[in-house]
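stage 2 :: seqdesign
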């Protein structure tokens, strides 16, 4: 297997540059010399507009600005439609980050809120709960790794940079999904596989809620939890049952070794809270090996 530039270019700035590189091919001047790249740039824009539910838009001009007013990428279409692309790899949105960018665009360009849109472009991993909160923003949608892989499946050329990007995303996805082939009676999960397992739990619980099997008021989430031993990945149900003075919740924890090369254990933890004192009971038999 040949070297892949995106195994080294892992920062969000690198991804910003790549997205702008794609969009540069949108210009008609590249139609004849680079037909596959030009065609894909058009597909890429169409998918963004489709995601934002912007219909029947004839594009007469497209301006791409990188790191403009601290915005990762700003697309200006027909000098009237403004699309903020907040690009994330393995970090998360800072509090009200895109709302702040939206206000900057409105003030700087003198446009109405209805003409400013946001795309949260995420190639790393984030819980369904966090993603749902982001989607609550005005004119805001997400493009996640699996969707991005599907979009890049439309590229028919042989541009090595395009190919490397897609290969790298598929490799990340395969690393996450590899947990499906582990026998937890004999094996432990890697850090990537734990994240993939948590992603799959999200999908399952969303489906159970939609079918009415799981109570809609039950909240589930996952994130990295820091502690003095190095931290762990935690999947938790934060409101299983609450009473006036006490309640209980459940969580799944990886082992506390924060080393992505080390195989991780999973523990099922039952926790009880009380107004008077905290009680934590650890049940070690369900996932631990």
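stage 2 :: out
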């Amino acid at each position: 297997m040949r070297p892949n530039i995106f195994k080294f270019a892992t920062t969000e700035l690198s991804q910003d540059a790549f997205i702008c590189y794609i969009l540069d091919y949108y210009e008609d001047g590249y139609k004849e010399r680079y037909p596959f790249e030009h065609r894909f740039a058009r597909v890429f824009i169409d998918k963004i507009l489709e995601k934002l539910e912007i219909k029947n838009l004839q594009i007469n001009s497209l301006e791409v600005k990188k790191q403009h007013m601290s915005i990762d990428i700003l697309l200006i279409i027909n000098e009237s439609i403004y699309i903020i692309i907040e690009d994330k790899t393995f970090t998360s949105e800072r509090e009200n980050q895109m709302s702040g960018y939206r206000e900057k665009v409105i003030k700087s360009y003198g446009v109405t809120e209805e003409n400013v849109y946001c795309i949260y472009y995420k190639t790393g991993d984030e819980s369904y709960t966090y993603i749902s909160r982001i989607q609550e923003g005005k004119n805001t949608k997400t493009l996640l790794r699996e969707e991005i892989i599907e979009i890049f499946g439309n590229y028919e050329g042989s541009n090595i940079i395009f190919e490397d990007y897609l290969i790298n995303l598929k490799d990340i996805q395969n690393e996450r999904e590899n947990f499906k082939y582990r026998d937890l009676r004999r094996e432990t999960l890697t850090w990537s596989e734990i994240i993939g397992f948590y992603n799959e739990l999200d999908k399952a619980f969303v489906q159970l809620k939609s079918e009415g099997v799981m109570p809609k008021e039950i909240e589930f989430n996952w994130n990295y939890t820091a502690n003095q031993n190095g931290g762990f990945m935690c999947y938790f149900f934060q409101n299983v049952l609450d009473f006036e003075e006490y309640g209980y919740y459940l969580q799944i924890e990886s082992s506390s070794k924060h080393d992505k090369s080390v195989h991780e254990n999973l523990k099922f933890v039952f926790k009880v809270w009380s107004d008077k004192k905290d009680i934590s009971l650890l049940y070690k038999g369900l996932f631990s090996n």
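stage 3 :: structure notes
- The longest strand covers residues 232-242.
- The chain has seven helices and ten strands.
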